[in-house]
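Hi,

Apologies if this is the wrong queue. I'm a grad student, and the batch job for Glutathione S-transferase theta 1a from Nothobranchius furzeri produced an output file that my downstream script rejects. I'm not sure whether the problem is my script or the file. Here is the sequence I used:
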Amino acid sequence: GSGVNSLESRPRLMAWKERVKKKLGEELFDQAHQKLLEAKGLQQEIQNSPHLQKLQPVFVKLFR
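Support response: The file is valid. Your script probably expects a header line. Output copied below for reference.
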């Protein structure tokens, strides 16, 4: 992961996560978590896309 435990201050969510991990098994839980992390990085990838940069003036014009 990112090394940051975002659930640290959320004990109920932390407990839920542990219950889910126990029920699914650690391997399946980690596989699902990996897909979520990949999707999270997709937003940054799209924002840095040169194709999007070319379209930005068009979008700005349309949505002003």
